[in-house]
Amino acid sequence: MRREGDSGRRRMPVRLLLLFGLSACSTAPVGAEPSPLITKSNRPKSATQSLLGTALSGDIRTIDIHLDLATRHASARYAVDLPATDRPVVELEVRGVDVKRVYSTTSGETIPSSTFKVGKHEVLRIDAQLGANDFAIDYDFSDDAHNGTERGWSVSRQNTLLWPDGCSALFPCHSDPNDGAEMKLEVVNPPAGMQLIYPAHIPADSPSYMLAFAYGNMSQFDAGHTRSGTHLSGFVYTHEGAPLDYAEHLEQLRREFEWLEDTIGPYIFGNDVASLVMPNGYGGMEHHPYWYVESIQADTHEAAHGWFGNGVREACWEDLVVSEGFAEYLSIRAPRALADKHDGYDAFLSSGRGPRPRPGKNGAWLPKTCNNEDAYATFNNVYSQGSGFLMELATRYGERAFDQLLSDFYLAHAGGAVRMQEFIDFAQARTTVDIRALAEKWLL
Ligand SMILES: [Zn+2]
């Protein structure tokens, strides 16, 4: 997700207040000094609360969803593991969908289930066995606009938004980012004459909010392949036309994606990726492998989530910096590396134009708890303070060496969830830079 200062394409009724003046991200020459966009929260007032402090039973391995937009009926198949230490039930969030039937995918027989509430959330409890479980759920879903929220499918926006914990508006799920799943999606019957755009398969474990689909009359721009064979496209609404210099932008984005693949590690969400220029509620949203941006300025940030935020995801909402701080840093680092700039960020950090540490008041990381706070607890701070922390660390460690350290960490955890403390311990073991002190300076 990208909090975005450029409201030119914004169609959602969100307020953006600029903390301080903005960047020339879109017009600066490649490799110019980084200029992160810093904005205050555009937190939707109607944001749902996480299932704070509640652990739902079951580890979802795969979800295979079929959605019919005409009938608003859906069917989803699940493979869920129940560890021996768990209870013999699978629990899934279902607030926002209307469950019709739970049944065995082998026998077709109905499986007993019931629902209960946790705060505003509704949870479906399904009879299960310890070990592997396969079942399907038939349910109805609806346009999220009917209840005025920004979660789920929006007919007016012509796409979906599940971040941070809105997955149950579209399918029974675990919104806990620690429980990643491999997902398949089939969407049928879009409005007449409109083209559906979504990935049919997300082949590695990813957080529940990554799943998305969009539709409209869109034009596709082919940006070619990276050295690793990943194909990149850009999609824009045909009636709006391409942004200025879009072909050059996509060529630069392809090179940045290639740098991330070559430097940080292989991309794990397939070999066909795309940027969709469309309203998405936040300025940008990391729906890999097809991410959404309202302004193409957000493209590098959203692409970088393929490595941090999605590729390696946060284990708890208190660790949101693993997602947003790292993606913001890589969106600064990738164009610098391509411009052969490796001399660190001292000048930028001391210029007064970049993020500033606020020891004791950073509010960017809450290491003591896990999912006792929601995603918005650190939301205002993770972009600036997280990228500031990584910029100073990279400067002291050496930018190129730090690329390698990030790669080592990514390769150790790709497809999994981590706490920020794990990164700090991992990095601390490889350097004499006092990373714990830096974390206190920038994050706590
Ligand atoms: Zn982001």
Word description of this protein:
- The protein is an alpha+beta fold and 444 residues long.
- Helices cover 22% and strands 25% of the residues.
- The protein has 8 helices and 20 strands.
- The protein has helices at 246-263, 299-304, 321-338, 346-349, 379-397, 399-413, 420-428, 435-442, and strands at residues 59-68, 73-82, 89-93, 98-104, 113-118, 121-127, 131-140, 152-154, 159-161, 181-188, 195-197, 201-206, 214-216, 218-225, 231-237, 272-277, 284-285, 290-293, 313-314, 417-418.
- The strands form 6 sheets. Strands 4-7-2-1-10-12 form a 6-stranded mixed sheet, with no helix packed on it. A 5-stranded mixed sheet has the order 14-15-16-18-17.
- A hairpin with a 2-residue loop joins strand 5 and strand 6.
- The chain is globular.
- Mean pLDDT is 88; it is low at 4-50.
- The structure holds zinc ion.
- Residues 1-2, 286, 301, 305, 324, 327 line the site of zinc ion (ZN).
Summary?
The protein is α+β, with helices and mostly antiparallel strands.
